[in-house]
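Help wanted!
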Amino acid sequence: MASQRGEGETTTTPVEPADRERARAIPEAAVARLAVYLRVLSGMSDQGVTAVSSEELSQAAGVNAAKLRKDLSYIGSYGTRGVGYDVEVLVSHIERILGLTRSHSVAVVGIGNLGHALANYGGFPGRGFPVTALFDVDPDLIGIPVGGIPVNHIDEITEVCLEREVSIGVIATPPPAAQSVCDRLVSAGVQCILNFAPVVLQVPDNVEVRKVDLAVEMQILSFHVARRADEAAGVSAGIDSAGNNGLGVDGMVIRP
Amino acid sequence: MASQRGEGETTTTPVEPADRERARAIPEAAVARLAVYLRVLSGMSDQGVTAVSSEELSQAAGVNAAKLRKDLSYIGSYGTRGVGYDVEVLVSHIERILGLTRSHSVAVVGIGNLGHALANYGGFPGRGFPVTALFDVDPDLIGIPVGGIPVNHIDEITEVCLEREVSIGVIATPPPAAQSVCDRLVSAGVQCILNFAPVVLQVPDNVEVRKVDLAVEMQILSFHVARRADEAAGVSAGIDSAGNNGLGVDGMVIRP
DNA sequence: CCGACTTTGTGCATGCGTTCACAAGCGGTA
DNA sequence: TACCGCTTGTGAACGCATGCACAAAGTCGG
Ligand SMILES: NC(=O)c1ccc[n+]([C@@H]2O[C@H](COP(=O)([O-])OP(=O)(O)OC[C@H]3O[C@@H](n4cnc5c(N)ncnc54)[C@H](O)[C@@H]3O)[C@@H](O)[C@H]2O)c1
Ligand SMILES: NC(=O)c1ccc[n+]([C@@H]2O[C@H](COP(=O)([O-])OP(=O)(O)OC[C@H]3O[C@@H](n4cnc5c(N)ncnc54)[C@H](O)[C@@H]3O)[C@@H](O)[C@H]2O)c1
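Answered by r_m:
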C-alpha cells in the first residue's frame, strides 16, 4: 500500500460514502494485483492462450483463487461460469480500469547510476509508459542522449514537461535534492511521482507519490532472517547477543 | 506488504498462537515503517539531535503519531512519558529488531543496466548491506570489476555465495532467466531474494521473496490519475472514450 | 430438452491493521 | 512533598482485506 498518502484522506469528503463513488473505490491492494494479473494475462495472450480459469490465473499470479475472483469482481463480471475468462476481454478491461488506454509519458530526473538504467530500460514504452524527458544539473550530461533522449537541464523542467505532457515524474537524484526536484515537478503540473530517493516527500493532496526504497526492502528481508534465526535457536533464553532483554517481550505481557 | 508469500502461512502451526510466538509477530506493515523510522532517526542522530517526541518523529516519517507509537510499542517500551524518546536508544533497538546488528552480504545477479546501478551504488554498505558478489552469464563481463567487485560467472554461484556468506540475493536478469537464477540462489543457501524481474517466483517456504516491480508502480499511479480524471469529469455519463459501459458499475449494483 | 458437471461471483466470518482516546507515568515546579 | 502539565503506551472500536463456502449460471453430453 502507499506510504506517502496518510493525511490526504481525511480532507476528502469526511464521512459520506456516496455509493456512486464507492463503486469506483477499488482497494489499493487489489489495484496492485490487477497490474500483476495484467502482466500475466499479456504473457498468456502472447503465447496464444485465449481462455483461462480463475484457478490457472491465480496460480500464475501467485495468489489465492478466491482473492483473484474478488479482485476481478471489483471491475465487473466478465467471466463465463463453467468456463472461465476470455484473456483478451480481461486484458482490455483491466487496462481500462488502470487508465492504460492512453499512454503516460515519463520524465526521469537525476541521470546518475539509476537514472541511466531507467532511461536505457526498454520495458516501459511497451507497457504504455514512454520515457520522453530526462533532467539533470550536471553540465557534462546536458545534451547527451541517454536511451535516445537528450538530457535537459533541470531549469527547463516546467517548459519541457508541459510541452511533452509528462504525467509521471521519476526522482533519481541524491536525497538532498529530492524535495526540491519534487516541488519543481509539481509546479510543472506533474501529478504522479515515483521516488527512489530515501526521503519522505511533502506534496499537496492532489499529487500521488509512490516510493521505492531498496534499503527498506533489504531491511525487511533482514528482519525475516533474524526472526527465523532465533526461532530456530529457541526463544526461551531471555538474553540475546546484545545483552538486551529479549525483544522487549514485556511490552506484550499483560500486567498482573 | 509482501506479495510472494501467500500459501506459506498455512503450513506453519495451523491454529495455535502460542503467546510466546505472538510476541515476536510484528505486523509486516509495521516492520516496513520501522525501517523508515530508523532512517529518519539516523539522520537526526547525525545532526546531533538526541531526543525526539512521537509527534516530531511521526511528522518526519510521514505517518500518524498514534501509529508510530504503536509500532514502537511492538519492540518494547523505550520512551519516557512526558519527555519522548532518546534517539540513540531507539536506533539501537530498531536495529536489533531488524537484525541489523550483523551485516548481511548481498549478491547481485545480472549485471546489465540495473545491475550496474546497484553495484555502483554506495548507499548499501553504509546501511549494513555490503555487496560482495556479482554474477552474470555474459563472457564479456566476467572478471570485470563493477563498483570494485569483479563479476563472476553464474556457474560459480554456489561456491562464491557460500564462501562469502551471501544472505541476500538480488535478481536483475531478464525475466526468462529469473526463475532459474532464483533456483540457483536457493540451492546456494540464500534465503532472502529481492527480485526486479517482472516474474512471479516460485520458492520453498523457508525463502523470503520481495519484488520491486516498477511497471506495477507506474500502473498504480496511472490508476489514480484516471480515477481523479473522471471524478473531475463527472461520472454521470455512462459511456467512456472506449465505448464501454462506464466502469462496469453494474457489477456493484445489487440486483432487484 | 434435461441433468450432471464446472466455474464464477459474492455474502459472510475472521483476522489484521489503523485510529481514537485516555489512564498511567514522568519531570519540573512551588 | 504535592501538584501540574506533558507524552507515552495501550485497550478498544472501527474499517479494510482475506479466505471460505455455496448458490447462481453457464457448458456439455446424452
Ligand atoms: N543506484 C542505486 O542502485 C540506488 C539504490 C537505492 C537507492 N538509490 C537512490 O536513488 C537516487 C539516485 O541514485 P544514483 O546511484 O543514481 O545516484 P547518482 O549520484 O549516481 O546520480 C544522481 C544524479 O542526480 C543528479 N542531480 C543532483 N542534484 C540534482 C538536481 N537538483 N536536479 C537534477 N539532478 C540532480 C546528479 O548530477 C547525478 O547525475 C539516490 O537518492 C539514491 O539514494 C539508488
Ligand atoms: N533497467 C531498469 O530500469 C529496469 C526497470 C524495471 C525492471 N527492470 C527489470 O530488471 C531486470 C534487469 O533489467 P536490465 O535493464 O538491467 O536488463 P539488461 O538486459 O541490461 O541486463 C540483464 C543482464 O542479465 C544478464 N543475464 C542474462 N541471463 C542471465 C543468467 N541466466 N544469469 C545471470 N545473468 C544473466 C545479461 O547478461 C545482462 O547483463 C529485467 O528483468 C527488467 O525487466 C529493469
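OP: Thanks! One thing I noticed: The first strand of chain B starts at residue 51 and ends at 52.
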